[in-house]
Amino acid sequence: MIWNTNLRWRLPVVCLLLEVVMIVLFGVFVRYDMDADPHWVEEKAIKNLTTDLENEFYYRYPSFQDVHVMIFVGFGFLMTFLKRYGYSSLGFNFLLAAFGIQWALLMQGWLHSFDGRYILVNVEKEASHCGGSSCAARGPGAQAHTLVPIHQVKDAGGSMTIHAFGAYFGLTVAWILYRPNLNQSEERKSSVYHSDLFAMIGTLFLWMYWPSFNSAISNHGDAQHRAVINTYCSLAACVLTSVALSSALHRKGKLDMVHIQNASLAGGVGLGTVAELMILPFGSLLIGFICGIVSTLGFVYLTPFLESRLRIQDTCGVHNLHGLPGIIGGAAGAVIASIANIDLYGEEGLAYTFGVERSKTSWNPNMQGRLQAAGLFVSLAMALVGGIIVGLILRLPFWGQPPDENCFDDSVYWEGPSYLPAFPLMTRAETRPVSVAPRTRVCPT
């Protein structure tokens, strides 16, 4: 096959065409919600509000910004571990997320805030759509995310509809696009000292802001407060567990930066579904503990198995950070919902937490548990079907894919400084070089 990676006409045409479509659709369907409309002045008088601080903006904008930092800085830098792929990691993440926000605004808007004529947007919806864009940009993620409120499934932090969906959608695409000769780019698939440091910057941003991600669309008051506490506890427990497993699984007891960068975040993923539920702080610690173990074991054992046996090349370990913890979160949501009771939540709190209308006398915790389990299966089914469809589309030869021997290299698509061979590191005390051997992303056992 002749590989043509020149994007001079293909990329501009696709980007401009998509943006023109967005402009037309936004012009026809999208309008400001009342909180962002000049009629807010009249709305205040009708609702007897005395100050503009009651506007939704002042409640949601901090979370809105935190989620933006996660998507654009956190996930962007987390992917810079590849030593010659930093431009692409940050640049393409930026591009896909920017389109994903617009796409998610439309898809979720039609199903959640469509008043018959228009989609009404405000900061709260923007925060939700920014989170949804993290999977929407990779495929029909917005459609999966919209199934949650339609079927009354609780998934505030998106364990099922963002993380599990995004992971298995991506893995299915990777299976369809399997490259048998990708080992020709194996040398560029490794990291170097400074690329791992940049990736760790992404990890720290994600770790700090994950409580905002899981609580961004929760109800004001106790639910949002509880989501932050639960996520924080889970993340803290996950760090200790992943560090312990990383050392225990190495034959010399050393830590692997791959595990610290990724597995330490699995607690935030696994807690997403139950973030606003009454799991109590020890339950949060337990979920983080389990996710840290499962994620680290996945990096050591499952990633090589997926590539050697199932022909799935999971370069970034999304199965271990998003897929497995997402399933754990979905399963935990089904269990926690099924044991909810009035003693734990109170009568009003139970109805408010699960969004149950007083007239809906057929609802009970067991039904909610079944809905939660169904939500997980629906997300996975949509991920597999959508991944197959998108994978087949991406197999078409006109997208400008690089040949196997040129993968993981910015110079294929980016203009920049010439790439030199890896240079030796110098200590402050000495001028002699200290060689650093490149390593792969899998910890030896």
UniProtKB/TrEMBL annotation:
Upper lineage: Eukaryota, Metazoa, Chordata, Craniata, Vertebrata
Organism, scientific name? Muntiacus reevesi (Reeves' muntjac)
Indicate where this protein resides in the cell.
Answer: Apical cell membrane
**Which Pfam families does the UniProt record give?**
Ammonium_transp
Briefly state the protein's biological role.
Ammonium transporter involved in the maintenance of acid-base homeostasis. Transports ammonium and its related derivative methylammonium across the plasma membrane of epithelial cells likely contributing to renal transepithelial ammonia transport and ammonia metabolism. Postulated to primarily mediate an electroneutral bidirectional transport of NH3 ammonia species according to a mechanism that implies interaction of an NH4(+) ion with acidic residues of the pore entry followed by dissociation of NH4(+) into NH3 and H(+).
The source's domain of life comes to Eukaryota
Family per similarity comment? Belongs to the ammonium transporter (TC 2.A.49) family. Rh subfamily.
Protein name, please? Ammonium transporter Rh type C
Q: Which regions span the lipid bilayer?
A: 12-32, 63-82, 94-111, 160-178, 190-209, 229-250, 262-280, 286-306, 318-340, 373-394
A GO-annotated cellular component:
basolateral plasma membrane
One GO BP on record is:
ammonium homeostasis
**Which GO molecular function terms does the record list?**
ammonium channel activity
InterPro entries, per database record? Ammonium/urea_transptr, NH4_transpt_AmtB-like_dom, RhesusRHD
Q: What is its main location?
A: membrane
Which keywords are on file for this protein?
Answer: Ammonia transport, Cell membrane, Glycoprotein, Membrane, Transmembrane, Transmembrane helix, Transport
- Known partners and oligomeric status: Homotrimer.
List each copy of the Ammonium transporter AmtB-like domain by range.
53-111, 151-412
Q: How does it sit in the membrane?
A: Multi-pass membrane protein
Q: Which reaction does it catalyse?
A: NH4(+)(in) = NH4(+)(out); methylamine(out) = methylamine(in); CO2(out) = CO2(in)
